[in-house]
Write a structure and sequence with these properties.
Blueprint lengths: L2 H25 L4 H28 L6 H9 L6 H33 L2 H35 L2
Length: 152
């Protein structure tokens, strides 16, 4: 069974996303909404990691490095200025999209296994991830005009 591979991906991707939200929030502290909301979203990711723990205990996990590679490649240091914020938010969006599709894959396995506990975890966490993506999309759209047109 390869569920352990995807549980490993998901577990570590959620950790990487939490770290990414913290980095971007701290790196763009001059933007109060970014600072505070990134903190809230990081805490959601932390709760997802905690919620996955019993499932990982049951099915185990295979350690994968893709999420850490994404974090290292995309979110090493935050960038400065409006364009930097825009690019950092896009990087978070990429990582959150990875988390989202990985939840989908694991959810399909949960349905196949008829694992109610796993499906309950997925239902709870997917709605948070959807909201994270929605906020990122909205904040990117908000930042783009100023960063790309109005900035000097």
């Amino acid at each position: 069974m390869h569920l352990a591979t995807y549980l490993g991906l998901l577990h570590h991707a959620e950790r990487a996303l939490a770290e990414g939200f913290r980095r971007v929030g701290d790196g763009h502290g001059a933007e109060p909404d970014v600072f505070h909301l990134c903190r809230v979203l990081a805490e959601q990711c932390d709760r997802h990691v905690d919620a996955l723990a019993p499932v990982v205990d049951r099915y185990h996990e295979q350690r994968e490095t893709e999420p850490e590679r994404l974090l290292a490649d995309e979110l090493g240091e935050t960038r400065s200025g409006g364009v930097g914020l825009l690019r950092d938010l896009q990087d978070l969006y990429t990582l959150a999209s990875f988390v989202d599709i990985t939840w989908t894959v694991v959810g399909q396995a949960g349905q196949g296994l008829r694992d109610r506990e796993l499906l309950a975890v997925i239902a709870s966490c997917v709605s948070d991830t959807t909201a994270q993506l929605r906020w990122l999309r909205t904040r990117i759209a908000q930042a783009a005009p100023q960063a790309l047109i109005a900035a000097v």
